[in-house]
Specification:
3 helices; extended
């Protein structure tokens, strides 16, 4: 499954969280980490548009964006 693929290729564990049941706003633990990381990545203007033809090129620019982003 997906978790096994991630472990084999990316060498990290994938944990899929279910949404809390009920109505209204419920905080999902550690979801802010993903949202913050995506916000850092998409501050790079080139990644805010889907212009790349090859997924490998897009992946490379993600690594560059993460490496040079100001985390303050």
């Amino acid at each position: 499954m997906l978790g096994e693929w991630v472990l084999e290729h990316v060498h990290c564990m994938l944990e899929v969280l279910e949404r809390p049941r009920g109505h209204g706003f419920r905080l999902v633990p550690r979801a802010w980490v993903v949202e913050r990381t995506l916000a850092w990545i998409f501050r790079c203007r080139r990644l805010s548009q889907d212009d790349e033809k090859l997924p490998r090129t897009w992946e490379t620019f993600i690594y560059l964006a993460i490496a040079v982003v100001d985390h303050t």
